């Protein structure tokens, strides 16, 4: 997917978070959006997703030469972020089934296969409210990385993951990144942005 940011800016009340972001990302770009806490990197990621509208400028998406509207982009995007909500009263099995009403999984893998891929097959029938923060992060990342979409957005993906889980995340991402554009919002953690060959530093656009 090709994504063009044309003089993008975002402000809340009278304060500009960033302005004049002018970048084009070609198909299958892997970009790290870098910045400290509160810098606006998560906000920019949400603009790329189509969830937020910029206060200035314009964003455009093109998939296989087809120009997409803001209304269309949702079906092409998978995202994992700290703000993403899961259904705590649902089991893992029920959360996966609910997700599949909106997006397909890569390779049409089964619910059981999905649980195995995120190494939570023994927790398939447990409500998510009983999951640890690390287990919940595995679910969020699994739903995004294993979604059948051409655009993948990850916001601080190694949050709540221990060393072994970080290796799991990296392996899962490597296996499922071909043919996709990737944006990772990060505080410059190399464990998170190891696949990114482009950088966008939000502080450069204040």
Describe the structure.
There is one protein chain. This protein has 206 residues and is an alpha/beta fold. The chain has a single domain (2-205), classed as P-loop containing nucleotide triphosphate hydrolases (Rossmann fold). 28% of the residues lie in helices and 28% in strands. It contains seven helices and nine strands. A five-stranded parallel sheet has the order 6-7-8-3-9, sandwiched between helices. Helix 6 links the parallel strand 7 and strand 8 (181-186). Helix 3 packs across helix 4 and helix 5 (133-145) runs parallel beside helix 6. The longest helix is centred in the C-terminal third of the chain and has 13 residues, at 133-145. The chain starts with a strand and ends in a 5-residue tail after the last strand. 35% of the residues are buried. The model has no long low-confidence stretch (mean pLDDT 95).
Fold blueprint:
Layout: E1 2-12, E2 15-25, E3 30-34, H1 41-49, E4 56-63, E5 66-68, H2 70-73, E6 77-80, H3 92-99, H4 111-117, H5 133-145, E7 151-155, H6 163-175, E8 181-186, H7 190-193, E9 198-201
Parallel strand pairs: 3-8, 3-9, 6-7, 7-8
Antiparallel strand pairs: 1-2, 1-4, 4-5
Helix pairs in contact: 3-4, 5-6
What attributes characterize this protein structure?
206 residues, alpha/beta, Rossmann fold, five-stranded parallel beta sheet, four-stranded antiparallel beta sheet, globular
């Amino acid at each position: 997917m090709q994504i063009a940011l044309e003089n993008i800016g975002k402000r809340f009340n009278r304060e500009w978070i960033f302005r004049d972001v002018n970048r084009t990302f070609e198909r299958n770009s892997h970009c790290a959006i870098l910045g400290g806490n509160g810098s606006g990197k998560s906000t920019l990621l949400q603009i790329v997703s189509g969830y937020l509208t910029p206060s200035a400028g314009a964003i455009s998406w093109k998939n296989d030469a087809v120009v997409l509207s803001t209304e269309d982009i949702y079906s092409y995007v998978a995202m994992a972020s700290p703000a993403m909500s899961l259904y705590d009263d649902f089991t893992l099995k029920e959360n996966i089934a609910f997700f599949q009403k909106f997006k397909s999984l890569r390779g049409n893998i089964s619910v059981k296969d999905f649980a195995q891929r995120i190494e939570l097959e023994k927790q398939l029938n447990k409500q998510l409210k009983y999951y640890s923060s690390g287990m919940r992060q595995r679910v969020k990342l699994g739903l995004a990385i294993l979604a059948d979409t051409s655009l993948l957005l990850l916001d601080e993906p190694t949050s709540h993951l221990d060393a072994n889980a970080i290796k799991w995340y990296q392996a899962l991402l490597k296996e499922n990144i071909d043919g996709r554009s990737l944006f990772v919002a990060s505080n410059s953690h190399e464990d998170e942005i190891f696949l990114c060959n482009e950088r966008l530093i939000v502080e450069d656009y204040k």
